[in-house]
């Protein structure tokens, strides 16, 4: 890293621009992240890109430059200040500690370190100061569904005191990465134009081709799956438990009752959540809207009579959590119903990691 | 109606086969209903078919015969014993009482009479005897989502005592009738093959063509809408309130707290429901499976480790409510989580009406 400096010794020294590494730069999240950098504050010096076997050797445009995509190898993090990991969990488990050992702060976008007791789980709109509490040099970002949810709920919790959540998350194909999107597009092309498919038992299974690395156990086109993630005990999926545990950690409510069900839906990008929230104090709907409207990273779009409610098609490519269908529970005085929608690749992943990186970079500036 | 009789006066008289009318025989539900008749007990005599402007004058195959589709007109129900209405609400409001006046029992598959205090709302697996309590000659069938839900919950309620429901219903395009399916197929053909659509704000709205009679306010292909039905007070949709009120009426629990959110999803047929149910008594999961397994019209398909859970693609064309993802709520000792899936056009509409008609026909036989 070269230090841009002035000619005159008396000139205020230019701060050294930190070097950023992006691991998984060619993935669904990584590609969005690399594009995002150009839209954010101009704080980065070198940007070093890494990927797996498919990406290595390709070139990626980042901040107007074409950068080679490299392999992870010993010494690859030398000189890196902040390393963003948007790669599979096992890759992060192995390489994030090595990045830290090389002097970098690691930001983990996978689920490798999210629930580690010494790793802060950070949503800059909610708990930015937690980013400083990185005892092992790693900061984690929550999964996409958790982000969409917590960004909307944090301020409501502060005012009314959250006491219970029942959530159904309809997860987009891109939540399963590049292969998820490719599979949905391939299957959609296979069923489009068939005038009867989807009307007889199993005809969709016959209409879509099977591929060895299919990430979904049933067709996703014209269908939905009541399953996302890995199996765990007692019939819960890892997505559901992750959403529960991460929400508790971020909101600082380790005992909060949460029931979550995750569905996979034939949407390219954009996670949707139906939320039944119960509070300690009665949530006045008028006040709820006020709070949401003034929360960072939240937009209320809610007038069904005019056809106004968020949908994945409308929120994809945007940063906030969109809130619609705000209404009081009919039979529960302290209950509130919400529909949330957010871009899982942006705020749900790439943007949140970039925001964390910016927080860390700003510490450096301040220091 | 001719009476098939024996040659000899001493022969047991053959029962008169009742005449059936189907109003809306050319719709999404009506077409399935007409096909279904061939798979059911052979009890019907004449079958008289009616439809609106598009269907009148066409011919439809029913029970191996080709029958003309007629217009509703004065006198059209003369000689009809049971009239099934699978037509728009306003048509049923006008014509069901006329069918009754002509001497028929009317079975209403629309939402015209479901909540009328003098009209029983019947699910033959749950409350068959209610069909006899038709004070104004009309029997109603609940909406598709209510059917999928109540068929699964009735026996659980009998054992554990239902005390609360939080439901998210992901409704298929065919729940919006023939036009709903046509719209989804047209939009799917329009977006299939586009390698980037669904990744930028609004690109889906540009990719699908608008048509005057579009039933959805946003693209449905590669998207989902947090809205189904008409607007009502306080931000609830008619689908959500209907699901709540009908479930209460069928289960005989007029005060049951129910929070429902209805989504429209890009699935051809097959409604999916996530259910968070709370009971008065602790629901043992093993016993829950036993009860569901032995309930009429219910199949448990639940082994996520083996990829076994119901999806619309698998349940479409079948009769039962399929139950998967059975698990105890983690933080609520009396809570249970379920995923339900059922064919909205079969049990969710056509089949339930046929079953009701068969109940009424059997009364005639018995009497
Ligand atoms: N998708 C989401 O909505 C979302 C949201 C939040 C968090 N996340 C997390 O973000 C991470 C990436 O997800 P994704 O959806 O972007 O997945 P993806 O599309 O499958 O991309 C994975 C990326 O990791 C790279 N990679 C694979 N093996 C590697 C290795 N051995 N060494 C270095 N790089 C390797 C891939 O490179 P190649 O191009 O060579 O394959 C690719 O760039 C995952 O941990 C995921 O859980 C995803
Ligand atoms: N779809 C479901 O999942 C579902 C489930 C439960 C209940 N329902 C209810 O069932 C009813 C039919 O729904 P659908 O989905 O089958 O709708 P659809 O596909 O739009 O079919 C409507 C049917 O009604 C006929 N019709 C329209 N105007 C008429 C008129 N003036 N006189 C006589 N017939 C007329 C139509 O005839 P043309 O062919 O001439 O248009 C068509 O046969 C609705 O009340 C709906 O709420 C639907």
Automatic annotation (TrEMBL), chains A, B:
Keywords: Amino-acid biosynthesis, Methionine biosynthesis, NADP, Oxidoreductase, Threonine biosynthesis. The keyword Oxidoreductase applies. Pfam families: Semialdhyde_dh, Semialdhyde_dhC. GO terms for biological process: lysine biosynthetic process via diaminopimelate; methionine biosynthetic process; threonine biosynthetic process. GO terms for molecular function: aspartate-semialdehyde dehydrogenase activity; NAD binding; NADP binding; protein dimerization activity. Residues 19-134 form the Semialdehyde dehydrogenase NAD-binding domain. It is an enzyme of class 1 (oxidoreductase). The active site is at 144 (acyl-thioester intermediate), 271 (proton acceptor). Its EC number is 1.2.1.11. Gene3D superfamilies: Dihydrodipicolinate Reductase, domain 2, NAD(P)-binding Rossmann-like Domain. It catalyses: L-aspartate 4-semialdehyde + phosphate + NADP(+) = 4-phospho-L-aspartate + NADPH + H(+). InterPro entries: Asp-semialdehyde_DH_CS, NAD(P)-bd_dom_sf, Semialdehyde_DH_NAD-bd, Semialdhyde_DH_dimer_dom. Pathway: Amino-acid biosynthesis; L-lysine biosynthesis via DAP pathway; (S)-tetrahydrodipicolinate from L-aspartate: step 2/4; Amino-acid biosynthesis; L-methionine biosynthesis via de novo pathway; L-homoserine from L-aspartate: step 2/3; Amino-acid biosynthesis; L-threonine biosynthesis; L-threonine from L-aspartate: step 2/5. NCBIfam families: PRK14874.1 (NF011456). Homodimer. Belongs to the aspartate-semialdehyde dehydrogenase family. This is aspartate-semialdehyde dehydrogenase. It comes from Streptacidiphilus jiangxiensis.
């Amino acid at each position: 890293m070269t230090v841009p400096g002035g000619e005159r010794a008396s000139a205020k020294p230019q701060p050294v621009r930190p070097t950023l590494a992006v691991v998984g730069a060619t993935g669904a999240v990584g590609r969005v992240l690399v594009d995002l950098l150009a839209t954010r504050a101009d704080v980065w010096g070198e940007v070093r890109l890494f990927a797996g076997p498919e990406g290595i050797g390709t070139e990626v445009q980042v901040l107007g430059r074409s950068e080679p995509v490299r392999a992870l190898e010993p010494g690859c993090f030398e000189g890196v200040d902040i390393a963003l990991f948007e790669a599979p969990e096992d890759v992060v488990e192995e390489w994030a500690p090595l990045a830290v050992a090389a002097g970098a702060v690691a930001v983990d976008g996978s689920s490798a370190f999210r629930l580690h007791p010494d790793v802060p789980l950070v949503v800059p709109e909610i708990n930015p100061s937690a980013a400083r509490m990185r005892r092992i040099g790693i900061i984690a970002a929550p999964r996409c569904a958790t982000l969409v949810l917590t960004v909307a709920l944090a301020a409501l919790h502060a005012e009314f005191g959250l006491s219970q959540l029942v959530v159904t998350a309809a997860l987009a194909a891109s939540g399963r990465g590049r292969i998820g999107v490719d599979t949905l597009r391939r299957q959609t092309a296979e069923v489009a134009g068939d005038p009867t498919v989807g009307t007889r038992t199993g005809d969709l299974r016959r209409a879509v081709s099977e591929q060895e690395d299919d990430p979904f156990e049933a067709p996703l086109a014209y269908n939905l799956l009541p399953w996302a993630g890995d199996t765990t005990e007692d019939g819960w999926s890892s997505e559901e438990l992750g959403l529960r545990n991460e929400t508790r950690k971020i909101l600082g409510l380790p005992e909060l009752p949460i029931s979550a069900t995750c569905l996979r839906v034939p949407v390219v990008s954009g996670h949707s959540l139906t939320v039944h929230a119960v509070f300690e104090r009665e949530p006045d709907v008028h006040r709820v809207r006020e709070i949401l409207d003034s929360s960072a990273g939240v937009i209320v779009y809610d007038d069904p009579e005019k056809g106004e409610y968020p949908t994945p098609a409308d929120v994809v490519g945007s940063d906030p959590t969109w809130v619609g269908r705000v209404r009081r529970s009919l039979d529960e005085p302290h209950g509130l119903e919400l529909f949330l929608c957010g871009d899982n690749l942006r705020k749900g992943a790439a943007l949140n990691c970039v925001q964390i990186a910016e927080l860390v970079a700003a510490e450096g500036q301040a220091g």
